[in-house]
Amino acid sequence: MNRFKAAYLAISVSVFLVLLKVFVGFVTNSISIISDALHSSMDVIASTITLVAMNLAKKPEDKCHNYGHGKYEDLAAAIQSVLILIISVTIITQAALRIVNQNLITETLPGIFVMIVSITLHSITVLIMLKYAKKENSVALRANALHLLADVVTSVGIIVGLVIIHFTGLKIIDPIVAIVVALIIIKTGYDIGKESIAQLLDKSLSLEEMKIIKETLAKHSPPVLDYHHLRTRRVGQIRQVDVHLIFPNNFSLMDAHDVSSNIEKDIQQRISTVRTTIHLEPETHNHSYKW
Description:
Layout lengths: L2 H26 L2 H27 L13 H31 L7 H27 L3 H30 L4 H28 L6 H13 L6 E10 L2 E10 L5 H18 L3 E9 L9
Parallel strand pairs: 2-3
Antiparallel strand pairs: 1-2
Helix pairs in contact: 1-2, 1-4, 1-5, 2-3, 2-5, 2-6, 3-5, 3-6, 4-5, 5-6, 7-8
């Protein structure tokens, strides 16, 4: 299996659960189950967006996209966060109307059953997706996995609510649980959106990765006298590193090139899917603009 098959799996599971939850939700008149069905319908859309984005992101570089098309994955994650927020507001609105109109749940056992099925299938799917998201550095697949993980958490909350209703008869708990579910979903959407927007705005690599890069540069000093304009970002799965290296005036271009090549290899050994661009400068060059 690869990340594309994992995305197809997410779509298949989500479609099945949407149909099951919609049916049981309307039969039992449970807004918490119906809200979870709406959330699962967003999973279908999100998983489809993820699949499309991953196919676009794997396209090679071209004249108009010199760094490739990796940001399609970040864009897909950002779109998912917006969808999550929209569905959350819808759930809260519908739950509030149920409380006002006293249009409450009629049955609980079918809902408990469908939530157990949902938790089981989603848990398996999330584990598979996270595995391949990490293995292939896919931002979009990870965002989709976190989206599904929110489903697992909310399904647990819904089961707890349904069990309480079953034994106490407090039917108003159903819309209250739906509102809590929506708030959890909003937090997930915020986290996904924050990360994806940071990548779209070319946020630097993590502190851990920056430390590795700086340690590698220090390892080659001498002959490298200093460096500046160290800039990093991530384009989809690819990590981009740009840096200017300063060499002694009497150091040959050939030797400087060899050192630069070794630096690139050392960074690649410690950071996966990295692309390094190095600019060579003599010691007497004006570095007044040093960063």
